[in-house]
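Fold this sequence, please.
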Amino acid sequence: MTNTLFQPVSGFDLPRFAGVPTFMRLPHIAMDDDRLPQVDIGLIGVPWDSGTTNRPGPRHGPRQLRDMSTMIRAQHAVTGTRPFELVNCADLGDVPPNPADLQMSMGRITDAIAQVLAAGVVPLVAGGDHLCSLPVLRAVAAEAPVGLIHFDSHTDLFDSYFGGTRYTHGTPFRRAVEEGLLDPRRSVQVGIRGTAYDTEDRDFAASVGIRIIPIEEVFDRGIPDVMAEVRAIAGAGPSYLTYDIDFIDPAFAPGTGTPEVGGPNSYQALQVVRELRGMNIVGADLVEVSPPFDASGGTAYLGASIMFEMLCILAERVAADKA
């Protein structure tokens, strides 16, 4: 029997422009609520962008993503998946950052995700800049390293910025490898492109075994072939899925801080996630939506649609585990 507590509000019952916006119109259940263990997948905002090195704004991403996600309906148009009937989903609110203290904010993020995981909840995170992924991974991979499936136009594998700053949105996966959070030989980055400072990031990837699939290869080979390789690299073990909205061409997603031309369109942006059905994804995030650069909300609506794709594959996996 469907647990009615965890059903989203239908647009047939309340207009989408009405009511308090939550992720996909789901119930809000606080992380310290006694009902948290009843939740299977928790959608969590991380409104924090202190790792940004260029144009700030992703701290406002979760709020706009919530607002635009009111357009999400109950059923996937292609697969027919109805995630809210498969498992219990809820909006768990935001991790409260300290915008004046980077290390404190990362500690709060790790603690919040650890609390959610301890309750048996799979986290689906909305950032925030890409540094958010590091403290999330510190919780997700606390017991053993995980594989990484990473859609982006940048590798985020640099060592430092500005003469020694080691924690920015350009460094999280370098730190994650160094901290033993990732299995680099089960890690793959898709869509990398754009002008470069140098080859430091790619040299590091090659030295530890991270596979980089540049955008030229994605277009030359086609998404199904590339995603077959992604699946082979990550394998059957637990993997973390991270998606930077700047993976998408800025013609379709202009609302981001570091756009790179020459990327995929909106359909391809959804397709790459859809190709991950059946994989052992243990957590995921969507980051770098920056509302100041797209006040219309089109970028956030695409981001919310990507989150729904993520939610569907997570729900199928969780439901299979519970069966």
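DSSP finds ten helices and eight strands in the chain. The beta strands are 41-46, 89-94, 122-127, 146-151, 182-192, 211-214, 239-244, 281-287.
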